[in-house]
From TrEMBL, chains A, B:
<feature type="binding site">
    <location>
        <position position="245"/>
    </location>
    <ligand>
        <name>Mg(2+)</name>
    </ligand>
</feature>
<keyword id="KW-0464">Manganese</keyword>
<feature type="binding site">
    <location>
        <position position="97"/>
    </location>
    <ligand>
        <name>substrate</name>
    </ligand>
</feature>
<feature type="binding site">
    <location>
        <position position="135"/>
    </location>
    <ligand>
        <name>substrate</name>
    </ligand>
</feature>
<keyword id="KW-0520">NAD</keyword>
<dbReference type="InterPro" id="IPR004429">
    <property type="entry name" value="Isopropylmalate_DH"/>
</dbReference>
<dbReference type="GO" id="GO:0009098">
    <property type="term" value="P:L-leucine biosynthetic process"/>
</dbReference>
<feature type="site" description="Important for catalysis">
    <location>
        <position position="189"/>
    </location>
</feature>
<keyword id="KW-0028">Amino-acid biosynthesis</keyword>
<feature type="binding site">
    <location>
        <position position="249"/>
    </location>
    <ligand>
        <name>Mg(2+)</name>
    </ligand>
</feature>
<comment type="pathway">
    <text>Amino-acid biosynthesis; L-leucine biosynthesis; L-leucine from 3-methyl-2-oxobutanoate: step 3/4.</text>
</comment>
<dbReference type="GO" id="GO:0005829">
    <property type="term" value="C:cytosol"/>
</dbReference>
<keyword id="KW-0963">Cytoplasm</keyword>
<keyword id="KW-0479">Metal-binding</keyword>
<keyword id="KW-0432">Leucine biosynthesis</keyword>
<dbReference type="InterPro" id="IPR024084">
    <property type="entry name" value="IsoPropMal-DH-like_dom"/>
</dbReference>
<comment type="function">
    <text>Catalyzes the oxidation of 3-carboxy-2-hydroxy-4-methylpentanoate (3-isopropylmalate) to 3-carboxy-4-methyl-2-oxopentanoate. The product decarboxylates to 4-methyl-2 oxopentanoate.</text>
</comment>
Length: 351, 351
């Protein structure tokens, strides 16, 4: 097969980790007879510096006309803690999500047996954890009407959801549940919020189309607790944009493998793949960043093209690297630390 | 001193644990020469069953004319998972908060050295944890306009905050920080929400009145992560209603002493004190519920009257009971388990 992949390296360690994912993807393409054309484009602080805009139109054209987007990381300290700055990298992120219609953010949390000790949680609590969040990404309070009244002394935000928005996100969750253990948890705050009641109603309406899936409904505060207490209890979780923002980040620390977690943002036509970690500017250019989360994001990309074998060889290579200690300094534990590039080379050579 | 205390036992184990807190408070009153008049009133499912209303007017009169409210727990399985039922116990809770003006929910999370092993987190991560949330409780999305449009196919909720609402909550946080380690964290989502930007602006404006307090601003998703990773990094945290709902519940599990955590909801005239645990209907009437969280809530009540010594004797008695193994079955660890009433008797006798 032939693919055009938009390549949005972004800021900080983004370019370095993306380079390794490209290397590994090219090795996969060669092995399976695919052809990938990479289309680099600007985003984040890098794009603000170059053209004054975090998600330039030209970048959007490239993304929209590609088969997928591979994304590094964005964010730069000079924009930190100034949510009122006129142009900020995260505005580009939100614009990109909306314009590309990336409505379902898929965030798996799973454990690597060799890394269990890195978790702040006790080993027996997390062993075997394997859950995945489907977070709605293009609606809710992120995109609702907001503003000020009373001379700026009153502020408001509107959270809004339509039945269709909920349905298309929920279907992704049900489909994933069918491929997994047929357990789905809808996370809401239906004892307080009207949007949550519509979520619950809509998901209840879909239950009959997926009779094999056991659906539970839990309040967001209860899930925030139980995720830390009993992460193994969960499998597929679906939720709205803001709850998903908080809970997926919370979930990412429990496995102890946060630096390795990939993600996907599924769109109506094009989908995007990126590591969940940030741009980590302190490490930029030092060849020390761990590229595995980005490499695993490339695996999700192949799997999303339904190329399951291609995804699997990448996952196998990563597992092998972990087992053999071919890791960057964050995982070296006093052993030998390899560079970002060396880990990428090793993974590509082991495809 | 003379006090009238409204006594809202509520549902499930509420009446049993409240009984012990009354016993202990009476022992304190006797020791220090105070006089407490208890004013029992109906609330929760118990009130729905009796008068069709979870927070009857008569209960409100009693609360509003008392010096404080001591609250057990509400909630009954027959109302669970039916957020569309016409009358629900939690509506009474919200009505009570609003009508009594309980604007600041104070939720401490601290550790008992003998209980560290109960935490899902590793001991070295939580040892020494001592943080307190100030959650705004009478505004935000809980009380904003909400409804449906498009034949019920679109739902919305409005989150709204005024500068005054933020100011009075934030001041409580600053004052607590001054009594503690002079560190305050404002939790918001100012990169997305206008209400959060008003929170940040308002808190920034207060900084100069409390020059000794070091203030940090963190996004809610980052705090959801870092609370699990490094709970010891936090001291006083202030936040809005919905973020507080999620984060205080998350924080409650990290200490391993969830069943022991008290809370206060400070109002403009009267304040309320309650354990953070639920009504635990399965245990109701069995004399097995742990009364310590409710007893410690009574300690917070005395402290809020500025009777610090009275609060301290209660805390000392609880610590002594824990050290000597005078505990209910949830903490017995194979040792002897005492009944709810026996623990209450022991605590009262040790005041
Ligand atoms: C940067 C921010 C706007 C963004 C969000 O809240 O969605 C981030 O936290 C994320 O989860 O991707
Ligand atoms: C029962 C519910 C409405 C309530 C809330 O969300 O405030 C509860 O979760 C709490 O935190 O006291």
């Amino acid at each position: 097969m032939k693919f055009n992949i938009a390549l949005l390296a972004g800021d900080g360690i983004g370019p370095e980790v993306i380079e390794q994912a490209v290397k590994v993807s090219d090795a996969v393409a060669e092995k399976f007879g695919h052809e990938i054309t990479w289309k680099p484009a600007l985003t984040g602080a890098a794009a603000i510096d170059a053209v004054g805009e975090p998600y330039p139109d030209e970048t959007h054209e490239i993304c929209a006309s590609s088969d997928a987007v591979l994304f590094g990381a964005i964010g730069h300290p000079k924009f930190d803690n100034d949510p009122t700055a006129p142009v900020r990298p995260e505005q580009g992120l939100l614009k990109m999500r909306k314009k590309l219609g990336l409505f379902a953010n898929v965030r798996p949390t799973f454990v690597f047996p060799s890394l269990l000790d890195k978790s702040p949680l006790k080993k027996e609590r997390i062993e075997g954890t394997d859950l995945v969040f489907f977070r709605e990404l293009t609606s809710g309070v992120y995109f609702g009407e907001k503003g000020r009244k009373d001379d700026g002394n009153t502020a408001y935000d509107t959270n809004m959801y339509t039945r269709e928005e909920i349905t298309r996100l929920a279907r992704k969750g049900f489909e994933a549940a069918m491929q997994r253990s047929k357990k789905l948890c809808c996370v809401d705050k239906a004892n307080v919020m009207e949007t949550s009641r519509l979520w619950r109603e809509t998901v209840q309406g879909l239950e009959k189309e997926y009779p094999e899936v056991t659906v539970s409904y839990e309040f967001v505060d209860a899930v925030a607790m139980r995720l830390v207490q009993w992460p193994k209890d969960y499998d597929v979780l679906i939720t709205e944009n803001l709850f998903g923002d908080v809970l997926t980040d919370e979930a990412s620390v429990i496995s102890g493998s946060m630096g390795l977690m990939p993600s996907a943002s599924l769109g109506t036509s094009v989908s995007l793949f990126e590591p969940i970690h940030g741009s980590y500017p302190q490490a930029a250019g030092k060849n020390i960043a761990n590229p595995m989360a980005t490499v695993l994001s490339a695996a999700m990309m192949f799997e999303n093209f339904n190329l399951l074998e291609e995804g699997k060889v990448i996952r196998d290579a990563v597992n092998k690297a972990l087992a053999e200690g071919i890791v960057t300094e964050d995982l070296a534990e006093g052993g030998k630390a390899y560079g970002t590039k060396e880990v990428g080379d090793w993974l590509a050579a082991n495809i």
